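hi!! sorry for the late reply, been swamped w classes. u asked for the two structures so here they r. pasted raw, havent cleaned anything up. first the sequence of the first protein and right below it the tokens
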Amino acid sequence: MTEYDSSAYSVHFAHCAGKLEAHLLKFGVTCADADSIIEESSVIYFGKLGSTAKKILKFVRKEDPTRVFVDSAYKAIEKHIPEAKNTFGSYSELTKCIQQTR
């Protein structure tokens, strides 16, 4: 991953993480749990974007960082609050949250 790509993905992650944090807090998740979920999702997010297999596939197609973020957030929520995956932590709810323009 080039320096530019890495920086762009970091900025994208920060933007999405802010939206995710607001979403989690709106549904009563504690600040500590929200921080843990965001930290876990960052490990997954940057792991996916920086993997060797992904670097090879980038020659074929560009990875959508929004989709990678939603995948990562979903997995982190599933690990920390399993019951949320059927409500505010569902894949579709997370996609709506991240794609909001506000």
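now the second protein. again sequence first, tokens right under
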Amino acid sequence: MNTTRTTRRLQLMLASSALVLLVCILVVIGRDPTPRVEAGMVASDDSFTLMTAPARTGGGMEKTDLLYVIDNFNGILLIYRSATTGATTKINLVDGGFIDHLFDSIRP
């Protein structure tokens, strides 16, 4: 009598854990496979550092982000703007140059 109760309890635990695993697998499969990069992320490797940030436009309805590319070895900063209007995305170079020149230009 005690063994049938134990067997049923084990079967119930096994079935519930299988159900939990099935739900987890379905959640993972249902996700969008394309990696997303959100504004505010920083990635660095070797001599390059990349940073994204949201950007404002003059009141337009388009979604824009900025990408800062820093060449740590040569001391160069490049800024790109990503603008999405409808189904098209454009990436344009906004500004850039040697970092020490950029800081020298703003000093009094």
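hope this helps!! also noticed smth abt the second:
The chain has two domains: 1-34, 42-106.
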